[in-house]
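ARCHIVE CARD
Drawer: 12
Card no.: 0347
Subject: one protein chain, sequence and derived structure
Cross-reference: see card 0346
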Amino acid sequence: MATLRDIKRRIKGVKNTQQITKAMKMVAAARLRRAQENIMNARPYSHKIAEVLNHLLNIETNINNELISEREVKRIALVVVTSDRGLCGGFNMNIIRQVEELARNEFNTFYSGSNIDLYCVGKKGNDYFTKRPFNVVGSHIGIFSHLKFEFASGLVKDLTQKYLSGDVDKVYIVFNEFRSVIQQKTTVEQFLPIIPITEEGKTNTAEYIYEPDKVGIINDLLPKHLSAQMWRVFLESYAAELGARMTAMDMATENAKELIRSLQLTYNKERQAAITKEIIEIVSGANALKES
């Protein structure tokens, strides 16, 4: 049985841990506010450019651009977006499980032939997949501490070149989409080739004049669209990470509070038992002296 000193030492240790988790929660909350602002600023642009591009792809049929052309799939690339640090609940394991499920089920043919290339953005995903039979061809660690649009556009350029050269035939992104502070959704999006969304049933009486022409505008918008979507993915993932960490640290703080309460009760019981034992020994000794 633990002594009073051991219990007291454990209470002190749990209190120190509680202070750390509480501080981490406050830091995550402060960063989350900025991350949410960045998402709110980026979403309108990425959604609008996607809407304009989708509209043009639906009304223009004479397009000869490989970025929107389907072809026989022989090799797949997966961009796996995780965090650089832990202590954020199931944030990273949800992504890892999703990638493993895709590799062994939906992309089973490519996985068995090692025809899946992984681009790991974030230390946790990179550490996991490099130690297992996955073909990690790109590792990007530490980018979320100083997230910049140039990194997103650079990664898009690299993926686009590999797609156009035929090194990969499809590109998917696996990431956590930010829904709210307590909710993140593991999402798989096809990045390349770009899939136009049909506009059936949508009525639009407005007529536009395109300069120089629709095809020229489409070819110019495609790389901008890809960069905007990749940038949105990174912002979504970073905000989702902070929300997951904030929630995890809040739960850890509450659990520490409950554990401290339980240990304090145990300490009080043990202390009371020790006092009672001492009193009994004193009374017994006094009675023995009287009898003698």
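Annotation on reverse: The chain has one domain: 21-197+206-249. The beta strands are 76-81, 116-121, 135-140, 170-180, 183-192.
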